[in-house]
UniProtKB/TrEMBL annotation, chain A:
Lineage of the organism: Bacteria, Bacillati, Actinomycetota, Actinomycetes, Propionibacteriales
SMART domains for this protein: VWA (SM00327)
Domain of life per record: Bacteria
Protein name: VWA domain-containing protein
Signal sequence range: none
Domain called VWFA: residue spans: 44-224
A Pfam match: VWA_3_C
Organism: Kribbella soli
TrEMBL record, chain B:
Native organism: Kribbella soli
Domain of life: Bacteria
Domain PPM-type phosphatase: 104-357
Annotated InterPro entries: PPM-type-like_dom_sf (IPR036457), PPM-type_phosphatase-like_dom (IPR001932)
SUPFAM superfamilies listed in its UniProt record: PP2C-like
Entry protein name: Serine/threonine-protein phosphatase
Signal peptide residues on this chain, from the entry's feature table: none
Length: 425, 357
């Protein structure tokens, strides 16, 4: 049985008239067990592979090999399927005209590997059709409580309008989780990131096809290690208060504010997907009506909920004080993640400006990113930024855009922009 | 009290090890409550000296903390906060009342701006109206440690001594007055011992509090104080009288000719020159004796009340008017006076103890 704990990091002291309370809530999970084995339902896994013409013969072979490696990592007893996608989606395994899934065992594993080896490159790219088919395939197994897919693409979503993709994303949000990977440099980070964020997954670049197998293997291993099928973050705030935002801030920045569903007028629920043995940090900001100095009140109850069971709770407090020594303290965790969130935004804004040729904005934003990465000790981000800009002074954020930048480096900076480092305690 | 007697000392949070100040109620780093449940019957007290009376267990007392939220009427959650408005549920120590006899009552309240109630009160009375009453108020020095625990222990220890004493001296008025004054001194000694017992001997910032007690016995009224908590006699048909003189910076200024208003609004207005506690210079109460010749109100209070009305005459008027509004009922009157002080800002803890004589 998984064990959850919640810890709250905040400065609860507000000055006279102060209204905004910020807190970092760290939720830690141990003893999660393996996917589909917790007794609370079955796990399902779908591998979605781009087999469009642009993949080419070598690309498809590498993708097929990666899918076979992934199949080896899916635990026996887990329901699974394989989808090959181009401008439309086909169920590559199980071989069936209708959507269907089967349980993994040595026989189905071998049959699936054989099916995957027959992939060939042809047609265009319409990722929305792949997602819709995955959703239909998952829905054929009612016992599934944990649904996870990995999606591999190599190109732009050219055979479908952005609006159609948006509609599809909205339609399948909440149906399953999906980690997305782009191979090569011809795909659009924004497009694929949209899918991953909506489906509570990750996005990353795989620069060369020969790196595919290792990445797929890792993704499936992670998915199989998530024994807690689904958990929600619940945030209670007092009557008259406003929840300014709820963000996951570690291991990646994901704004959950708009994902709220109301439990009651004072409590909202935010999806967090499945959990393995891991720790995630959430930044919660609440605006209260100011009270008199000396008064104390609860600003938020932050809970992790499985089904209807609260498994961990953190209390965010507010205490109005006239003591400036208390009210002006900056909580290190809140400051760190505020910086990391701004870092993610600065990188994305900077790269977007660079893409449209707005050198001035790109230089300012990426300079700010360099500064924030240094201040928050995010060395990975600094390393990635270094491949895109020449850093003259990281303390002041003085940078120059590099004349020639590897496209893959730029995309890696973009996809990794939301990855955060933890506070050094 | 807002007296910075010694600076606060930094220690570490027992939960996360982060640096915290002694004044902190919760850890800055991890939010752990550092001084959980400073309830009146704190385990920090030496049980030998602790009265067995528990707040909420005495007839006429109301236990706060149970029941609906004081702020909005909502349900209080298991975590101690209202499930609707988030207001922290009051601890019993934050607000308590006593009414040992229908003619004697007191209310002790946290006020608004302080995060805990360091005022304390202990009163006792015989059933016969106007016969025998004793009212003790102690105000913990907020800059010292555990002063909420110390003040309550002190008030109750003093009450115990005063309740037990029946010595009448030789029976003459002056002899009876001396006997009661001697009891007051013994009560102050017991209160002082209770304060000393409530903090560890090597505490960097030992608890301290003020002391005021008034004893009415067969028409004789004796009051004594250490610090700036006060007793007043407001006869219905004569001039109101302040029975105590503050041991304070402000009182010393007044003695040199500075106006009361000016002295009591100065930056050191609340600095006291005598108190009970380990580092106290001297804790012998200065006593005043008075023969009660007619009906009136005996008021014993902390500065949480008199801050807003210091002079005897207007304070007498306030008490008379409030009593008139409440039909002369002592508990309702004391409660209304506390509400009045809170309405003025509730800057400090407020204690009002009244006897209708």
């Amino acid at each position: 049985m998984a064990d959850f704990t919640a810890s709250v990091y905040q400065n609860e002291f507000l000055p006279d008239g102060g209204t905004d309370v910020h807190a970092i809530v760290t939720v830690n999970c141990t003893g999660a067990g393996a996917a589909g084995q917790s007794g609370s339902g079955d796990a399902g896994e779908i591998i979605i592979v781009d087999t469009s013409g642009s993949m080419g013969r070598d690309g498809v072979q590498a993708a097929a090999y990666a899918a076979q490696t992934a199949l080896d990592q899916i635990l026996d007893g887990v329901w699974f399927a394989v989808i090959s996608g181009n401008d439309r989606a086909q169920l590559a395994f199980p071989p069936s005209a209708e959507p269907v899934m089967v349980k993994m065992d040595p026989y189905t594993r071998q049959a699936a590997k054989d099916a995957v080896s027959r992939f060939y490159a042809d047609g265009g790219t319409a990722m929305g059709t792949w997602l819709r088919l995955a959703s239909r395939v998952f829905s054929t197994v009612p016992s599934l409580t944990q649904k996870h897919a990995i999606l591999l693409t190599d190109g732009e979503n050219q055979h479908e309008t952005p609006e159609a993709l948006t509609q599809t994303i909205e339609a399948v949000t909440g149906q399953f989780q999906c980690d997305t990977r782009g191979v090569g440099v011809a795909w659009q980070v924004d497009e694929v990131r949209r899918i991953a964020q909506a489906l509570l997954g990750t996005v990353d670049i795989i620069p060369a096809p020969d790196q595919l197998a290792a990445e797929f293997s890792k993704l499936i291993q992670n998915a199989m290690g998530r024994g807690v099928a689904q958990a929600d973050l619940r945030v209670w705030a007092p009557q008259g208060a406003e929840v300014l935002f709820v963000r996951q801030v570690a291991p990646t920045v994901e704004d959950l504010t708009s994902r709220r569903t109301s439990i009651n007028p004072l409590t909202g629920s935010y999806p967090t997907g499945s959990w393995g043995d891991e720790s995630r940090d959430y930044h919660v900001a609440i605006r209260l009506a100011a009270k008199a100095v000396g008064q104390e009140q609860l600003a938020a109850r932050v809970q992790l909920v499985l089904g209807n069971d609260t498994v961990a709770q953190g209390l965010v407090k507010a205490l109005w004080s006239a003591d400036e020594a208390l009210t002006t303290r900056i909580n290190p965790e809140v400051a760190h993640y505020t910086g990391q969130t701004e870092l993610a935004q600065a990188i994305q804004d900077g790269l977007a400006a660079k893409a449209v040729g707005d050198t001035a904005t790109a230089t300012t934003k990426l300079g700010r990113a360099v500064q924030l990465a240094a201040q928050t000790g995010n060395e990975e981000a600094t390393t990635r930024l270094r491949k895109v800009v020449e850093i003259d002074d990281q303390d002041t954020g003085t940078v120059r855009l590099k004349r020639t930048v590897e496209k893959a480096d730029e995309m890696a900076l973009d996809t990794a922009s939301t990855k955060t480092t933890r506070v050094r305690k | 009290m807002d007296v910075a007697m010694t600076s606060t000392t930094d220690t570490v949070c027992p939960s996360c090890g982060g640096a915290v100040s002694e004044a902190d109620l919760f850890c800055e780093a991890c939010g752990a409550e550092l001084k959980p449940g400073t309830a009146p019957t704190s385990p920090a007290l030496d049980t030998d000296t602790e009265p067995t009376v528990e707040i909420g267990a005495v007839p006429g007392q109301e236990a706060a903390g149970a029941g609906p939220c004081r702020s909005c009427g909502g349900t209080v959650g298991a975590d101690g906060y209202c499930e609707t408005c988030g207001t922290k549920a009051a601890k019993p120590r934050d607000h308590f009342e006593e009414q040992p006899a229908p003619w004697v009552a007191g209310v002790c309240d946290r006020g608004i701006r302080h995060s805990r109630n360091e005022d304390a009160m202990a009163i006792a009375a015989d059933a016969e109206p106007g016969s025998r009453a004793l009212l003790v108020v102690c105000d913990g020095v907020s800059s010292s440690l555990d002063s909420d625990v110390a003040s309550l222990a002190a008030a109750r220890a003093a009450r115990e001594v005063l309740e037990a004493g029946h010595a009448q001296g030789l029976g003459t008025d002056s002899s009876r007055a001396s006997a009661i004054a001697a009891r007051l001194k013994a009560a102050a000694d017991a209160a002082s011992d209770a304060v000393l017992d409530s903090t560890s001997p090597d505490s960097p910032n030992p608890a301290s509090c003020t002391f005021v007690a008034a004893v009415l016995e067969n028409g004789m009224l004796v009051a004594g104080s250490v610090g700036d908590s006060r007793a007043y006699w407001f006869p219905d048909a004569a001039e109101p009288v302040g029975l105590t003189v503050d041991d304070s910076w402000a009182a010393e200024l007044i003695a040199t000719g500075v106006s009361r208003e000016e002295a009591e609004s100065g930056p050191h207005a609340h600095a006291i020159t005598r108190w009970l506690g380990k580092d106290a210079p001297d804790h012998t109460p200065r006593t005043t004796t008075l023969q009660v010749s007619g009906p009136g109100w005996l008021l014993v209070c902390s500065d949480g009340l008199w801050n807003y009305c210091s002079e005897a005459a207007p304070l007498a008027e306030l008490v008379r008017q409030t009593a008139a509004d409440k039909g002369g009922e002592p508990l309702a009157t004391a409660s209304a006076l506390v509400d009045w002080a809170n309405a003025q800002g509730g800057q400090d803890n407020i204690t009002v103890a009244l006897a209708r004589i």
